[in-house]
């Protein structure tokens, strides 16, 4: 018997006696991922074991012992025939559950393959609604009739695909991945990256990882299992609860929109300072992208974590600046052109940073921007505030403007201040522009980091500045040139 076969048999015993841990389940799945040839023999062995157990005469003696054990002090009656029948049913239900657990953990191969294939549509919990260059690996037992997903395992070598679950969530998977689909509300992600968008009215959709359970509370969030063993969790909208498998914490850690955390194998969590996304939001990374993809390499601030609970995370949108893009991580405000001409042409398609609007009144705030190449670096600064010295010393006002379309107030703010003005996002350039920002430019001939500062000393109404960058060979145009072009 090979070492993998021996270990599989050891793990079966843990499953059948009810002591299997999440770590052992993950080990079981990993072995079967590497050795799918073991599944058929494993399933046959478990079924034979079950049938023999049911037919053993020892069961009758066990039930007889159970009768005696449950007989109470003198005057109590023994188990009735009805209760004995219920005990037999309970034992059978346990055995059936144990078999189902083994087969589901191992990829669900036999359980689903032995069902009539004409009913895959009824048994599907999700459907693949989009895919691009996906290379499926052997052992993808959850994939049926091309695009149906039933409980089982999905494994890819690369590409990306999107699943629409029957319960409502949409999950986008990218790159090499191994995941177990258990139901329309539960997925085990063993390796790779998945981003889920869940309807706000639906709560409880969960992505389990080897170290943490990410439990949705109506949101868009991303989960990535890193090669170094850490797990990254990013919340793009709404909120999630994180329940780790290691510590003794009773209450889960909650992450809200704009927060991100990296979780170690020991369950410790740390802030992720930034993530990058493509302009369509199809993929994201907490690492630096490959050369040539980005202009903005990194943004960092001097805000210390508050007792380890502050997980604010900047988002860099590569080539993403366009009409109606969200300006901030934490507020639903959008950048737009100030009139029907739209954004200044030299800004379209620029890398830009979604900053934190909550930082606009910080007195000691400092941000450092690092570039991957020589670039034009831009700061969008609120015209309601006098430009601070760090801005006038390092940047030049282009004479161009960009508009901010403010979105709705958070429900908690509106409840506390019913007198607040009503804001709604509109679509398109020049629509619903609530505030004007001047576009300031700095020519960066090298990649020396640039340090930005606070909004100013005064406390008047304001919104946090924005940041964008283009390669140096994309030349800025003056206000006069812009008027001629338009």
Automatic annotation (TrEMBL):
Keywords (A to Z) from UniProt: Membrane, Transmembrane, Transmembrane helix
Pfam families (alphabetical): FecR
Domain (FecR protein): residue spans on this chain: 186-240
Annotated transmembrane regions: 94-112
Cell wall biogenesis/degradation keyword on record: no
GO molecular function: sigma factor antagonist activity
Gene3D superfamilies, alphabetized: 2.60.120.1440
InterPro entries: FecR, Ferrdict_sens_TM
Name of protein: FecR protein
């Amino acid at each position: 018997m090979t070492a993998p076969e021996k270990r599989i048999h050891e793990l079966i015993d843990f499953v059948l006696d009810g002591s299997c841990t999440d770590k052992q389940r993950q080990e079981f799945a990993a072995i079967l991922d590497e050795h799918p040839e073991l599944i058929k023999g494993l399933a046959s062995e478990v079924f034979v074991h079950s049938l023999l157990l049911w037919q053993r005469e020892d069961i009758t003696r066990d039930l007889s012992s159970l009768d005696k054990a449950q007989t109470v002090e003198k005057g109590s009656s023994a188990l009735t025939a009805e209760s004995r029948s219920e005990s037999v049913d309970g034992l059978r239900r346990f055995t059936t559950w144990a078999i189902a657990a083994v087969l589901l953990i191992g990829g669900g191969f036999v359980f689903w393959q032995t069902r009539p294939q004409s009913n895959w549509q009824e048994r599907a919990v999700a459907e693949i609604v989009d895919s691009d260059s996906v290379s499926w690996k052997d052992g993808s037992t959850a994939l049926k009739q091309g695009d149906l997903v039933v409980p089982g395992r999905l494994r890819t070598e690369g590409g990306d695909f999107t699943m629409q679950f029957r319960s409502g969530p949409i999950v986008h998977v990218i790159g090499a991945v191994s995941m177990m689909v258990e139901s329309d509300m539960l997925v085990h992600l063993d390796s790779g990256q998945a981003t889920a968008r869940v309807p706000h009215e639906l709560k409880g959709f969960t992505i389990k990882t080897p170290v943490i359970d990410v439990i949705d509370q109506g949101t868009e969030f991303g989960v990535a299992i890193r090669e170094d063993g850490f797990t990254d969790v990013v919340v793009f909208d709404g909120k999630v609860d994180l329940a780790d498998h290691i510590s003794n914490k009773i209450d889960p850690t909650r992450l809200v929109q704009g927060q991100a955390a990296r979780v170690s194998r020991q369950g410790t969590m740390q802030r992720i300072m930034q993530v990058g996304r493509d302009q369509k939001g199809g993929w994201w990374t907490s690492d630096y992208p490959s050369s040539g993809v980005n202009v903005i390499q990194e943004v960092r601030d001097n805000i210390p974590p508050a007792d380890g609970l502050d997980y604010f995370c900047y988002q860099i949108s590569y080539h993403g600046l366009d009409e109606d893009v969200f300006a901030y991580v934490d507020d639903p405000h959008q950048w737009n052109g100030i009139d029907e001409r739209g954004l200044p042409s030299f800004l379209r398609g620029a890398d830009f940073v979604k900053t934190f609007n909550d930082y606009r009144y910080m007195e000691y705030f400092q941000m450092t921007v690092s570039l991957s190449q020589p670039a034009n670096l831009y700061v969008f600064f609120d015209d309601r505030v006098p430009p601070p010295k760090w801005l006038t010393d390092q940047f030049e006002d282009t004479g161009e403007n960009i508009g901010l379309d403010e979105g709705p107030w958070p429900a908690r703010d509106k409840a506390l201040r019913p007198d607040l003005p009503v804001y709604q996002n509109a679509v398109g350039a020049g629509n619903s522009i609530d505030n004007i920002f001047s576009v300031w430019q700095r020519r960066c001939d090298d990649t020396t980091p640039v340090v930005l500062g606070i909004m100013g000393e005064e406390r008047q109404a304001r919104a946090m500045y924005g940041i964008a960058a283009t390669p140096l060979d994309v030349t800025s145009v003056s206000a006069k040139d812009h008027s001629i072009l338009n």
